[in-house]
Write a structure and sequence with these properties.
Blueprint lengths: L2 H27 L15 E11 L6 E13 L5 E4 L11 E4 L4 H37 L1
Antiparallel strand pairs: 1-2, 3-4
Helix pairs in contact: 1-2
Length: about 140
């Protein structure tokens, strides 16, 4: 596997984790937004990733891989209903609808994505150090 393949894998993984962090931020920003109907309520979003393997055309061996963001989908979990007759967004029955965002799960997801991003930064850093060491070998 070449240095370029390693950099492509780490770079695509960092891009995927950035998408993941952005969806977490969006979910947390909308966690307490109220709506007057279930249809209008914000629904949590989750990214869908896939590992894409590149094959070497000459010998059918794996040449590398990358992480691809396939889509960002809405959660199918039901939204939260609360009886708040004094809320201006309450419907005729006094019910207000809140997003299906679990703040604790979102924070956990954020920490996981941050650590995965940091790991890939470390991979790129070590790759750079390896390349510099290789260049120094050629100087001697």
């Amino acid at each position: 596997m070449s240095f370029r393949d390693i950099a492509n894998i780490a770079g695509s993984a960092m891009n995927a984790q950035s998408v993941r962090l952005n969806t977490v931020a969006s979910n947390l920003a909308n966690a307490d937004t109220a709506a007057s109907s279930e249809v209008e309520a914000y629904r949590a979003r989750k990214p869908v990733f896939a590992a894409v393997f590149d094959r070497n055309a000459t010998d059918d061996a794996l040449a590398g891989a990358r992480v691809q963001v396939l889509d960002v989908v809405q959660s199918t979990e039901p939204v939260r209903e609360a009886y708040e007759p004094d809320n201006p967004l309450a419907n005729a029955e006094g019910v207000v609808f809140y997003p299906n965002v679990n703040s604790v799960a979102e924070m956990t997801d954020m920490m996981s994505a941050s650590r995965a991003f940091e790991t890939n930064v470390e991979v790129l850093s070590r790759l750079k150090a390896m390349q510099q060491s290789l260049l120094r070998l050629g100087e001697e």
